[in-house]
Write a structure and sequence with these properties.
The complex is a heterodimer. Chain A is built from 22 helices and 23 strands. Chain A is α+β, with helices and mostly antiparallel strands. Among the domains of chain A are: 255 residues, no CATH class; 199 residues, no CATH class; 59 residues, no CATH class. In chain A, strand 6 and strand 7 form a beta hairpin. Chain B has a domain of 45 residues. In chain B, a hairpin with a 6-residue loop joins strand 6 and strand 7. The chains are: A alpha+beta, B alpha+beta. Chain B: It holds the Pfam family Acetone_carb_G.
Chain lengths: 766, 165
Amino acid sequence: MNLAKVLNEIQQTKKPIGWDGKTLKEMRHEIDEISRETGHYAGLTKLPFKEADPIRFEKIYSKLRGGVVHARETAKKVAASPIVEQEGELCFSLYTPEADSIVTSTGIIIHVGTMGAAIKFMINNDYEDNPGINDKDIFCNNDNHVGNVHTCDVHTLVPIFWEGEVIGWAGGVTHVIDTGASAPGSMPMGPVQRYDDGYQVTCRKIGQNDVLSKDWLLESTRSVRAVKYWTLDEKTRIAGCHMIRDLVLDVVKEEGVDAYKQFIREIIEDGRRGFVNQSKTMLIPGKYRQASFVDVPFKDLDLPSFAKVDTILHTPSEITVHKDGKLKIDFEGSNRWGWHPFNATPVSITSGIWVMLSQTLVPNDRINDGAYYASEFGIPLGSWFNPDDLRSAHSNTWHALVAAWSPLWRGLSRAYYGRGYLEEINAGNAHTSNWLMGGGYDQYGQLSAMNSFETSSCGVGASAVQDGESHTAALWNPEGDMGDMEIWELLEPLVFLGRQILPGSGGAGKYRGGNGWQSLRLGWGAEEWTMFMAGSGVMATDGGLMGGYPAAAGYRFQANKTDIKDRIKNKQPIPLGGDTDPDNPVFETVMNAEAIHRDRQAVTTQEEFKDYDVIMNYLRGGPGFGDPLDRRPQDVEADLNEKYILLRYAEKVYGCVFTENNGTYAIDLNATEKKRKQIRKDRLNRSVSTKEWINHSRDNVVNMDAALQVRHMYAESFALSEKFTDEFKEFWNLPEEWMIYEEDLDVPLLGSRINRFKEKKERIKQ
Amino acid sequence: MAKYDKKRIAELVDGTLEFYQLKEMMSDFKDPERFDLHLSVLQERVPWDDPILLPYGLHLYIVQKKNGDRIVKCDCGHEFCDYRENWKLEAKIFVRNTEELMNEIYPKLMSPDPEWQVIREYYCPGCATQLETEAVPPWYPILLDFEPDIDTFYKDWLKKPLPTA
């Protein structure tokens, strides 16, 4: 007791490191209070610095922004991992002492929020007292439950001091190749609990006086695979943070600390105002509703029994654009977290939304926490992006996040359409997968791991004025790059047999979604290597818009113990890509194998992968916009000749008729016009009025006639949300007693704690 | 601030602009005149006279009727319902819920598994245009996608009176 008292007193005698004798915790509390009370960041109803000296204000901003981008561009050259060095999966951000973001680099800017969450965690847990926050300290975090996206996003955080006060934080993040999880790779399949997710570092002080501690270096490098990449990634992050620290100190020396302090407050309030202005410029007040779904086909995977469940992650969203231009996104109705690695934290979903918005609603370089202060989110506790249990796994959270965000594009696009900003419309984003991962002893005999970031170049959603770009981008990093095959081959014990556009992978429409593609890899040179993949297989995760179709769903192709070695020796044909029509597969015609997997099971767990085994990576397309019958026939002709669509779909979906000469197709306009008229007639003949359809479909609902995974999804949403339940029952006009309970479905219930039905029963008992 | 003429906006609607022109329009500050220009391009093209209050979706408009009603109307002239109701409930629907029906749109394995997810297509009863699709698990309620606050939009944001019939 006495010892605790003494320790407490010693800690309290430490001089606070915040401004004007305050602790960082007191500063955080003050900012929150005054921002909430006034509706303006830091209570700034005016921007005196900006208004009095706008040139100086912008000069400071440009210096900081340019410096942060420069830090990223320079520091990434330190890395050896192609994920960082080639794909640019890194980001740097500068924060206020209380962890509000001032300015951010390019790159994976989702981490504006996640690194801020880590600094807030340190502030809230009194790190100022213990372990202490000192000049030249280095902190590390990758703990998912602190607010990280997933374990492989490792943060380095460095406080910036000026004359004994913290004037800010520099943060850097890289996506590392391996985190020592229960399976290799950065986003492994296999983890179903936090304890499988890999090496998690909870905001730990790992260095002092700009030097990393030896215990940290030893422990961290013994905890992950692919150590050389881990080590160089860390040096990358530290180099970038130190460049930013130097930059800030230079600005303070030049402008004075008082000007800097005023600037960092005003720039965030300026960002908040800018967001509201953009909202009023481009949106329409009202409500926008949409929903996303992504498959969790785990029933037959090699996992603990409580995780072997087929289910669907359900994410309805309602965007409200208020009269004052503020935005609310409510995810009420979303279903439960589960024993899979697709769970997320609230910070990762909200921060990721800014990645999206910075590509559409606020397409400028003022990415800071100002937008956050102009928005509100409804994130149900117990849902897959707000688990009420520290055990939840998050290693592959992008599986669910990219699906959840896709409908938000459609909501915003309805506003852009109404306002006439057709060039901003986007039918949605591709499900950036498959992730092709593996690990073992690589071709150099080193313990290593891989995650193919070819996903950086999926198809883009169509707009209202042009097709989505093909094989070119990913939602999460605005600088899409599929990487050079030669570089991937240097890192990974897999030879490229081919890369090929996959016809029809983009959703059809007046403007079609950008196409995806496939690459075919051959195992070569590794020992004790395992492979697996992760992607949506049984569901399309991104709906079309205004008559366009969703992008195609995924599938897997893998062949083990092939005869390719003999075929090469005997100069026989081998698969070299070009398997562009799964109705007429060709890979199997040019090889034999003991096991061939060609199916919708696009999430798998580790299996041995040997030399001459073959695995395909299928990178998804984007969704389409508008009725395909509205597509210009000459565009369909070009698609066909450039092999972006298959002939039979040019006819069936687009209603275009062609003549063929030496493999080149020419549109027959007269026959096309007739064909399109016929398709319209057929549509009317085979459709029914929606009200009639509701009447006869109601029987299926009443009789609970749906697959278990579908009923499970609804049961979880019903258990968490009364509003969703009421709306569902009202739509189908269901009797009071109709309900699906999780307990009645004969599925594992481990961890299903929040349940309004149970709570109701308990209330009645009392 | 960017400024475009009606011809440019008509070309935008037609999808005939070059990429560099679109890129310019995306990168520049938005032109406040766009709403009016876009509306006037669309109004000239529809074969009916009801004033358009808001473009609601490709081929769909919220229009002002003489009796004061605001309804969702297709450019073919088919009138759906009050704009606060869900026009999809007044449309024709076709549901792709078998492998065979999915295979009409996607190659094998590239469609959703219909046990997990179906594709709903909503057609205009007048012209059979496919106005919207949904990719949802069976039983999913039909959502009212967009509920605009037209009065606030005109009065407080555009600061102009609503068009009258």
